Amino acid sequence: MANSPEEIHKAVRNIIIIGLILGGCTIATVLLSYYEFPTHSINIIVGMILATIKAAFVALIFMHLNHEAKLIYKILAFTVAFAAALFLLFVFSSHDPLVFSGFYESNQ
After folding, report:
1. C-alpha span between 96 and 74 (Å, rounded)
2. Which CA distances in Å does 18 have to 14, 54, 55, 75?
3. What is the predicted pLDDT for the residue at 75?
4. What digits encode the pLDDT tens for the residues 13-59?
5. How many angstroms separate the CA atoms of 56 and 99, rounded?
6. Tell me, what DSSP letter sits at residue 20?
7. Angle subtended at Cα 47 by Cα 33 and Cα 80, rounded to the nearest 5 degrees
8. pLDDT for 106
9. Which of 7, 23, 47, 85 is most buried by its number of CB atoms within 10 A?
10. pTM
11. Is 53 exposed, middle or buried (0-12, 13-18, 19+ CB in 10 A)?
């Protein structure tokens, strides 16, 4: 915690800067919803990247995770890997070869 007026002023300035960055990312997200990339998948990827950046700033600065012990980063790495695996499972589920080959229709 801040013990002097200078440290408090510096902390407030950092919070204002992070708030402006988050506001800019939010504006970029809204503008992204009006812009159409060549494929809809690129829109989703760019939106997820912006959301990840915003979540990282909130977690690191406002939740003070940037001052935590190394264990929290191991837990967060596991969480990110687990979330990525869930996203990949969702993507792979739409490409099920049994569904596209007509296997389900021919056996019913």
Report:
1. 33
2. 6, 10, 12, 24
3. 82
4. 988 999 999 999 999 999 988 988 888 878 888 888 888 889 888 88
5. 38
6. H
7. 160
8. 55
9. 47
10. 0.60
11. middle
Neighbours of 19 (CB within 10 A): 13
Q: Give the C-alpha separation, 2 to 66, whole Å.
A: 15
Mean pLDDT, all residues of the chain: 80
- Cα–Cα distance between 23 and 2 in angstroms, integer? 25
Task: Return d(Cα 62, Cα 42) in angstroms, integer.
Answer: 29
Report CA-CA distances (Å) from 39 to 25, 33, 35, 36. Answer: 21, 13, 11, 8
In single-letter form, the type of residue at position 2 comes to A
- Letter for the amino acid at 96? D
pLDDT at 26: 92
